[in-house]
Amino acid sequence: MKIGVLGSGQLGQMMCLEAIPLGYDFFCYSPENDSPSAKVGANSTVAPYESISDIKEFLSSTNVLSFEFENIPKSTLEYLQSESKTHLIFPPPESLLIAQDRLLEKNHFRKLGFKTAEFFHLTKDTSKIEISISYPWIIKTLRFGYDGKGQVKVQNADDYRSFLENAFRNGNEEYLIEEVIPFQKEISIILTRFQNGEIVCYGSVENEHKNHILDLSIYPARIPIGLNLDAIEMASKLADSLNYVGTMGVEFFVKDNQLYLNEFAPRPHNTGHYTQDCQSISQFQLHILAITGNLPPTDVRPKPTLMKNILGNDFNESLSIARSLLKDDRYKLHLYGKKEAKIGRKMGHLNFKGTLEEVSPLFHDL
Hints:
366 residues; 9 helices; Dna Ligase, domain 1; D-amino Acid Aminotransferase, Chain A, domain 1; Rossmann fold; eight-stranded antiparallel sheet; five-stranded parallel sheet; 3 domains; alpha+beta
């Protein structure tokens, strides 16, 4: 079977590393030359996401198509949605259309009855309306933002007036204003939904960020068991509502023992990288098994694991620290083979098979 994936970054790389040993041929498509996926054996097509003719040719050369990147042009996703009637495309392109549009995403969550931050759709036409959300706010571009990109914090009315001065230079810009939730923890659920509708879920992982970029994931999350079960139920309900197939990440804020659904990613997720070394099956292998029509495994019980992102900031020093820890076989280093280390760029991650109390202090210096 030939698996095609739109995107060729580190998530595609880790999918490829699971697919090839299972006997599948792996193909990636992106505008990037010498990509992380190509470096581990993926057959690479280099072409723009906007080119329907190239996408059509790529699709015809695969048995099943998936994604490792959701910021694909709307016109391309709509084309793939029409093709999904005759070609296996997982997850459904409609789920990417929802995930990449913050207003569609929030409205979908509310339709399912989930708590979210209060929000307001800001356009040039609505910019004169009085907004009833208490400050502070986060104002986000409606589409194509990640790792804190396309976001600004607004503390008061003066900040908002300053923002509006340059917000509508083209006239058609759209934003989502969200209340800032003073949460105690951020958690996520990594689950995989199979073609028969069965769901495999690891349970909650706790996440800490620096400068809006994931820094540390702690499994299992340090939350009450009832809250963990509620998060699993909500994430599963979301997956069912999308008729989802494959692995997805669902992020929550925890405030006063209540869950606020923040966003979802229609692909394997950075907060699920710990699953590569949790003494169970990884999120990437589950994704491959799901999209290729296999049945879910009967036992997924991870052991406590930590994941630390390695960024391009002081990369050589971080790499030296990570390699020094490898003398302890509880540590496992995963590098993505990216050509250039830049500030804020995810270059790899280090997993630790154990608890926060057992890890070396050097782990936190990465």
